[in-house]
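Case study.
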Amino acid sequence: MATPAPKYPVVVIGGGIAGITAAVEAAECGAKAVLLEKRAHLGGRVARMHKYFPKLCAPYCGLELNFRRIRENPDITVYARAEVAGISGQYGDFTVKVKLQPEMVNAKCTACGKCAEACPVERQDHYNYGMGTTRAIYMPHPMAFPQWYNISRKACRGKECNKCVEVCAYGAIDLDARETVFEMKAHSIVLATGWDPYNGAKLQGLSFGVSPNVISNVMMERLASPEGPTKGKLLRPSDGKEIREVVFAQCAGSRDENHLPYCSSVCCLASLKHAAYVREAAPDANISIYYIDIRTPGKYERFYHKIAADPKVTLIKGKIAKAEHDPETGGVIVTAEDVLAGKKVTRRADLLVIATGMQPAAHNGIAGLKTDEQGFFADGLARGIYAAGAARLPQDVSATIMDATAAALKAVYGGRP
Amino acid sequence: MDKAEYLEPDLAFIARLKRAGGESVKKCFQCATCVAVCDVTQSDKPFPRKEMIWAQWGLKDKLFYNADVWLCHQCGDCTMHCPRGANPSEVLAAVRSLSLAEHAVPGFLGNMHSSPAALVPLFAFPIAVLLLAAMYANGLAIPAGEIIYSRFFPLAVIDSIFISAALFALITSALSVKKFWGGMKRNAPQKAAPDAAAVFGALKDILFHKKFAQCRANKPRYTGHLLVFFGFLALFATTNLVMLYHYLLGRETPLALGDPVKLLGNAGALAAFAGVSYIIARRLAAPKETGNATYQDWTFILILYAAIITGILAESARLANIPAAAYPVYFTHLVFVFFLIAYLPFSKFAHMLYRTAAMIYAASNSKTS
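After joint prediction, the assembly is written out as follows.
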């Protein structure tokens, strides 16, 4: 098609797998692309996985490839620490207002790490979902892109302390940096703001946030990761003891009109994948997965059968609706009905993983764009504005990549919303 | 399973159940959250998940002749946690409501108690009987002088009416429970006949309201039911003691206010009044926690309340010496009391029969398992 390249760039909001894909695909189609990420580094939720479907490789094998495509393509501009404050205009001529958080660490950073050694402040490690701590100046993980340190403005003591500035040999740190706001023109906009895990603390009775031995599925990814808080060792969070019993609670807050009324479509596979992590990290541990229905769509059925056939893995039909601290073992006692046996059962576990679902990221409300009642971006927003990935509906990485590619195509050519 | 089971869904029953308060039954998707959050259910073949699928499939016989439907105390914990709004607590309450008519012997009296129109003949009967009795005794005239209710209704008349009513209730109760018991045996053959331990265990649980105490969502009902239960027990004892006074000791009513039996009766009346008031207030103020009230629930609560209030008023009017008020109120009181006693196995009052039977049945069944 002999369409001239768009005058203005395709602006992609969100630097996770959906946003990265959309920006790269748009740029490789001949458009210019701008990628806005509110955190200091790209990769979003996918970067925080230990392994991901379909090939169960580490996410960086895919992300690295994309980062290279970004680095090598002069048509892609990345703004990290960037949030969108407003969108106006129409297809071919949008104006996007961008709020850039202070660039306290700039591109001169070589990631030598001297600053973090000097920093006296410890903060909770949000990247690892609160498991462990980092310094106020930190690199969330060794593969982070762009390779620069970031400063937690909440934790940093500022110029009074100044220790990081003193040790930085490259002049990369400026504690006086201020927030900047600027506007840019956009040909079209891709919304790839992603998802947040549902807050397990809202699930009454599951003791999430009460017992350290009750963790969510996203935390399990970090515990299994060699770059995670335990360097991939799977031990009981409360006391570091060996793990013998692991229980998974499926549909924790999903398909539940009191929480998320929909199925996120990924949690069953995630727990089956976690069972495989446990088999590697703690080969002697027994694994029980309590479910309503095991949902492994398409070709993943084979993976389900493989895990289900493992003698260390037991699948029990029946939802866990109660989990309490076990004073005797220090672990957790879960309660459910074993529906197929017709018995109410309790089981002691060293670790309970609650399979919480995906909800649209909290910042999906930008610029008053229309969302459905769950907060996912509605279809048919406007010509020139396209949502992609988990910001549109809960989906896995493969589906998200296809979705983002489709959104990029529409964004370049102005497809029907 | 040894052999395939042939299930026959009764669609008309499903429609009936929905009308009786179980309209949400089809929303259940069998996740079993209800069982996990229920503190009242037993562990072996627990409720209410299995009842929900029986109800969805219209398996009337399994539902009606099943102890578990009555072991449920409608705490509402399952309904509160249900992810689908299927309200298992309400569905089981609807099953119990339909059970009353199903088990009733004679059946027509059971059916009458589920229809508001039938209230007319149900009330007309005791009114007619008591009017005839009063006419026979004193020509319906309000006796002059000190208010003594036995001048209006001689004790022999009252006792013959109410002992007949009680005997009728006793016999029909026995027949109704027998029908229920037989059905339970058919559906879930007993491993052992109930022994003294099973009976006493069940009675102890009832007396101490052990199951009510395990409820969380509808915890306040424990207090309400306890007050009504012991209030009523005290009134029942009072009635029997008054009879003993009369026939054995020759002591006549009205008793002095300081008499221990009088004290017991007044304490019982006040407790029952407080309990029913609290139950009604809770039902009105917190309909979500207390759950849907069926027609039988409201008629029972209100007739019980009316009996208690007219009882208290009759005593007050007597003490205040207002004959024009006292005798008519007393008459009304007797009508309500007759309703409660004679129709016991057909009204919601019968929950005490079926729940007790179910608890004994379940206790004798779990013992050997």
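Observations recorded in class. Chain B is about 70% helix and 0% strand. The two ends of chain B are 18 Å apart (CA to CA). We will return to this complex in the next lecture.
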